[in-house]
Amino acid sequence: MRIHSKGFGAAPDAITLKYNGASVEAQASDTVASALIAAGDPALRVAREDDKRGVFCGMGVCAECTVMIEGKGESLACMTPATDGMVVESAEPRLDLPSLETGSSLPESTLTPDVVVIGAGPSGLAAAAVAAESGLDVVLLDERGKLGGQYYKQPAPDFDLDEHQLDGQYRRGRALIGRARASGVHILDRAKVWGAFAPDHIVAASPVERWVIRAKRVVLATGAYERGVPMPGWTLPGVMTTGAAQTLSRSYQVSPGQRVLVAGNGPLNMQVAAELAAAGATVVALVELATPVRASSVLQSATMALSSPGLIVDGVKYGLALARARVPIITGSAVVRMTGDESGVTGAVVARLDGDGTPVPGTERSFEVDAVCMGYGFLPSNEIARMLGCSHRWDESLKSLVVERDEDGRTSVPETYVIGDSAQVHGAKVAQARGVIAGASISADLTGAVPGSLERELAAARRNLARNMRFQTALNRIYAAPVLTVELATPETTVCRCESLSFDTVSRGLDDLTSSAGASKRVSRVGMGKCQGRYCGPVVVALSALRSGVSVDERSGFAPQVPFKPTPISVIASPEQ
Description:
Elements: E1 14-19, E2 22-27, H1 32-38, E3 45-48, E4 51-53, E5 66-69, E6 72-76, E7 87-90, H2 97-100, E8 108-111, E9 115-118, H3 122-133, E10 138-142, H4 168-182, E11 186-189, E12 192-198, E13 201-205, E14 210-213, E15 217-220, E16 224-226, E17 239-241, H5 242-252, E18 259-264, H6 267-278, E19 282-288, H7 297-307, H8 309-324, E20 329-331, E21 333-341, E22 344-352, E23 365-368, E24 371-375, E25 378-380, H9 383-387, E26 392-395, E27 400-403, E28 416-418, H10 428-447, H11 452-478, E29 494-496, E30 501-502, H12 503-508, H13 517-524, H14 537-548, H15 569-572
Parallel strand pairs: 1-7, 8-14, 9-10, 9-15, 10-11, 15-28, 17-24, 18-19, 18-24, 19-20
Antiparallel strand pairs: 1-2, 3-4, 5-6, 5-7, 12-13, 13-14, 16-25, 21-22, 22-23, 26-27, 29-30
Helix pairs in contact: 3-4, 3-10, 5-6, 6-8, 7-8, 7-11, 10-11
């Protein structure tokens, strides 16, 4: 379903794809995923008979949207631009030999910058720009084709845009991207970092080139991905993360469906529901796990208003947009199961949850839908930091690892900085401030001083960091809710999406002899798929801690491994070898 937001003018040129033999009308702005979803066909990958999958993460992490293009290679529909005449097929579970040849002729070069920044979201762009403006040689890598990350995601370039009509989030992102470009940063887009063997030995590849990067300092700004919550029906086509839905709408003007239910925990869900409703989609309900409106929220709301009044204004706008669209808001509740078939999701059941995250009997409500967007918080993308040996600690309240770093972002590995949500999820404002601080710290480290032209900005960044940390702390208290892992799963629920392993199978893979995540992987194959345990990992960690009685620490989950994401062997091994 096509939608239309303010600031987007005439539609891009029309193109036509072939999908499983049928013609699909699309736009030149589309990815393969947005084109097919707009055409009402969310089913993509064939996991097994009668089990199709569709876009889930929307950011190249899960591989659920894998398709075959032009009869060869496996491509992620969410990351692949659509082109006129492109032939696309559902990917089936088979070894695709032609894909092994991809990259066999890619040239390789060695880069020796002062600084390499991995990730072009708010923190990475800010750090790169500040370091480059200080006179340092900076390389910035991002695996997407457009800069901005998940928060500052930009419209596809084919849209006829009215800059003055775009919302503030778009405009701030465009300004930061423009600053990074003007600073002289060497930008490598569609560049996937597949290995990190030392701070001065990073390896990456794009569809057309390979690099060995030997930098004096490494800045990891790899962001975060949304936590998966296994429940019946969560693998149906049309069920996706809230972030994936926002990418579809903000970058490609496509709604995930015509009747959309948004559920989860946190303000991003409210924003996405409001934006979809304002752009013309039917949002059947916004389901929030927390109970934000309560007596104890008054003081926190005052703190937020004093810390960042602009964000409060944005929240009020979203609330008014939902009210105008008459979207029901259901609090203290969650989607507990979904129904449908291989063509897509058709129904969602919502229930109240008690304090430990289990459904309350007799509170169920059913909704007819063709899309469900779920956002239950985020997990840092920390595999590169862990591979480089940066120390982490387990935060039980967040149920995630948090990197240990100083106030400038420097980790236990002195040459490595970790900033933004890849360190700890605190949102875009905090991330951008930390980017400025890290960039200035590296400048002082390598040149001996922070340029006078940046001193005022650095002082402002430290003030903004403190102010926005107060805002985030208050916001987290307002949206406090149980962190869901296994509470909604039934024995038959698929837990490992890549390997199609049920909760029962994964549970039976954990016993007295296999009480760790790594041991369970060798028994049941859990975590061996293309997402490398990013979505099933929290479930295995929770179960292994419960079975063993051993407290969770930084070594409890799956170990980071090279390649960090699926990479053709011909990219890893040079032709000469």
